[in-house]
Every structure is written in C-alpha cells, then in structure tokens.
Amino acid sequence: MARLDTQSKLEILADAAKYDASCASSGGQKRSSMGGKGMGSTTGSGICHSYAPDGRCISLLKILLTNSCIFDCHYCINRKSSNVRRARFSVEEVVQLTLNFYKRNYIEGLFLSSGIIKSPDYTMEQLVGVARTLREVHDFRGYIHLKTIPDADPELVEAAGRYADRVSINVELPTKKGLAELAPEKDEKRIEGAMGAMRHHILDAKDAKKRYRHAPRFAASGQSTQMIVGADGASDGAIVTRAKGLYDGFGLRRVYYSAFSPIPDPSAVLPLKRPPLMREHRLYQSDWLMRFYGFAPQEVIAATDDKGMLPLDIDPKLAWALKFREHFPVDVNRAGKEQLLRVPGLGTRAVGRILASRRHRRLRLDDVARLTVSIAKVRPFITAEDWRPTHLTDRADLRAQLAPPPAQLDLFDTPRPKAA
Ligand code: SF4
Fold first, then answer.
1. Do the domain assignments include residue 40?
2. pLDDT per residue over 92-125, tens digit each?
3. Which residues line ligand 1 (CB under 6 A)?
4. Which of 235, 275, 382, 412 minimizes the number of CB atoms within 10 Å of its CB?
5. How many angstroms is it from 194 CA to the middle of ligand 1?
6. Average pLDDT value for residue range 215-223
7. Which residues lie closer than 8 Å to 419 by C-beta, 6 or more apart?
8. Which residue has its alpha carbon closest to ligand 1 atom 5?
9. What integer pLDDT is reported at residue 409 of this predicted model?
C-alpha cells in the first residue's frame, strides 16, 4: 500500500464509507461536557444533524478504518478483487481526526466501519481500540457507532458495545440465497448469532440499569442493520418479511434500506442498473407502517403487485387502502386509533390530535383538513360531521385521482421517510 498523508486517506476512506446508510444517530444517550469535564457532547448548541443531498446523515465523521478487505462480496467496492486505491488509518489517526473534527464542531460523533484486514478478530480489535481510546484516554462523550464483525471473538464484539452508543451488523442481503450468491464468505447463521448475542447483552445491561443506578451502559442506542436493495432478485415482499423478522427476533432499533448503487469496477454478477431511489423510500414507508401504524407484514405484502413489488407512484398505505376499500370510510368522530391510523394521509400526530379534539366537539372536514397535508387524499376514506364520501370511496378511477402525475425523481429530491 502506498504511503499516503492523512488528507488523502480521509478522501479515500470517507468516500468508501458512503455506501453504508446506517449512520443515523437518533436515540443516543445524553452526555455533556458542560462543567469542564471530558470532551464533546451528544446534545447542545452547535451540534447539528445535517443530511447529504441523497438523504444520508453526514453529521458524523463517517469513515472506514481501511478499505482493504480479505473478503470478496460482489456488491462491495472494497472487495478483495476490486481495483480501487487502498488506504488504512491507524487507531491513533482515527482518534485524532475525531477529536479535531469534534473540536471544530464539524461532527457530533463517529461512525466507524472497516474492511476486514488479516482476520475478523484483528479488525475488531482495531475498531474497539479506537472507541476505547476515545472514551478512556480522552473522555470523549460524543456519539460512537461501531460496525461489528459477526465472525470476531464474542468478547471483542461485547467490548464494542461497552464503548459505543450504537452497534450494527449488516445482514447485507434480504435472503439467504442472495447472501450465498453475492457474499459467499458471509453466513446468515453467524450474522444472526452475533445479533442474538448483542441483543442479550443489551437486555442484560438494561436490566442491570433498572436495579443499579451506576450499572455500566451497553450500546444504549441499540443495534441496527442494513439491507442492500436491488442487488439481488429479492422482492419488496421478501424484504419486508425479513425486516419484520429482524425487528422481532433481535430487537433492532432500525433496519436501513440502501438502494444498490452500481460501483466502479463492478462484479459481472451484479445488475447494471441501480433500482429507483423511490423503491428505497417505499420500503422505509413500509417499515414505518409496521413499526408505528400497526400493519402486519402480510398486510404490507397485500399492497404489492403480483411480483411482490410495492407501487412506486403511490405510498404503501394508500396502495393498501385502495385494495381493501371495504375497511372504509372511517368515521373520524367514532373510529378507534387503529382504524384512524389506516387512513391514507393521516399520520400518527394527526390521529393523536383527532382523538384529543373530538373529546370536546364533533369534527368537520375542515377540522381534519387542518391536520393533514392533503385533504384530497384523506376525503375518500373518512366520514365527518358534515362529510360523506358516498360513491367516491368505490370509484374505479380513485387511484388515478390520487396518484401524483408521473415525474422524474431527481437525486436531490429524495424524500425522507414518512409513512402517512
Ligand atoms: S466484508 Fe465488508 S468490506 Fe469486505 S468485501 Fe464484504 S462488504 Fe466489503
């Protein structure tokens, strides 16, 4: 590997990290250095969350320790057979970069991942070494997200959880078949074994915290994972089912969906075209439907087409409502929370306000209109004090009326996840 200065390494290793979408820092433990103790904070003025034009969080220093790797996952630009410039940071270099960026208020924390060098254990030792030095030597109180390596010694993976706010292990592909084809050195059982062990430690630590105030924290922001969308033939239905299994089986805080981006020097087994970014967005919306709107995965799947794909032109909640119109209209003055959450165009906040307002008076269509961005989307699915949709709910052309006119999605207009 050629000798490179820090700036050149940073260019290579920050660029190489951009394919990982799981960098959100929500739910972190509140720590502060106010009062002169330690350095950094996860809260407070001057620390901002900002997003790259394609919607990815950039408020963290998001880098790889190295983009060299002994594995050869087909979808990865850093795979062994890829012809890219390689670079590697030492533990001390990452520590100093983090501290310097933090002092300048460029970042609120660190997101650190790595290609696998020498062995999973060696790589994990280096990643843990960064987090340990930041916490123990420099009393760093900012946010740390560490990628963990499923094949590494469980003690090292556990050490990662002791120093990091969040840990993540990528499942990479939604199906076992996809993983076997595109990441032959990875194994679903080992990945899930590591996730299961991590969940166990997180639950133990939470339990201890309830009993002992000073019990040490362990990955207080939980664990997350990422699935690559569109690199294999997995349908949206398969992805939704897998995501639900991961949430239920391993208590994940988030599943991130990353639309496969064709990489320079691609492997011949990969598709030539990236999936539409809107597909990634629809999967995030489905994820929200399952986590916050009471939808079962089978219900989301029921909104897909005969190939198991969600429509791109309308959101999954609207697609479901159009297919199952017998559940509508819903009376906004009488219906329960679960029914209201099914109404296209009504988000969790709007439903909460409807439930609160109707204790005092009967709601009219105008009252609902004030709570939603698009009353046109809501009207066919509700009744109110002065509103009955009559035949509107069952009209054959309702989908055409509610679908936005076709438009080219611009890379810089990627919407942020929102289910309603
Ligand atoms: S192990 Fe990680 S870095 Fe290495 S090739 Fe696979 S995805 Fe890329």
1. yes
2. 999 999 999 999 888 888 999 999 999 999 999 9
3. 69, 71, 73, 76, 78-79, 115-116, 183
4. 412
5. 17
6. 91
7. 285, 288, 289, 292, 293, 315, 316, 317, 347
8. 79
9. 52
Q: For residues 264 and 361, state if they share a domain.
A: no
| 292, part of any domain | no
CA of 182 to the centre of ligand 1 (A): 11
| Between residues 246 and 263, the one the model is more confident about | 246
The parent domain of residue 15 ranges over 6-275
Q: What's the Cα-to-Cα distance from 249 to each of 105, 198, 305, rounded to whole Å?
A: 38, 12, 27
Strands 330-331 and 254-259: unpaired
Bridge partners of 331, per DSSP, are 383
State which ligand 1 atom lies nearest to the alpha carbon of 77.
Answer: 8
User: What separation in Å is there between the alpha carbon of 99 and the centre of ligand 1?
Assistant: 27
Measured by CA distance, the residue closest to atom 1 of ligand 1 is 71
The torsion region of residue 40 among left (phi > 0), alpha (psi -120 to 50) and beta comes to left
The CA 71 to ligand 1 mean position distance, Å, reads 6
246 and 391, same domain (yes or no): no
For residues 249 and 371, state if they share a domain. no
Looking at 275, 300, 331, the residue that finishes a domain is: 275
Going by the DSSP 8-state scheme, the letter that residue 327 receives in this structure is: G
Q: Whose CA is nearest to atom 6 of ligand 1?
A: 73
Which of 12, 20, 69 has most ligand 1 atoms within 8 Å of its beta carbon, as the pocket-test mutant? 69
Give the per-residue pLDDT at 266.
76
Q: Are 330 and 384 in contact (CB under 8 A)?
A: no
Q: Is the domain of 264 the same as that of 321?
A: no
136 plus 208 within the same structural domain: yes
Pick the residue whose CA is nearest to atom 3 on ligand 1: 115
Phi and psi torsions of 72, nearest 5°: -135, 55
Same domain for 323 and 242: no
| Number of domains, the chain | 2
Q: Are residues 37 and 177 in the same domain?
A: yes
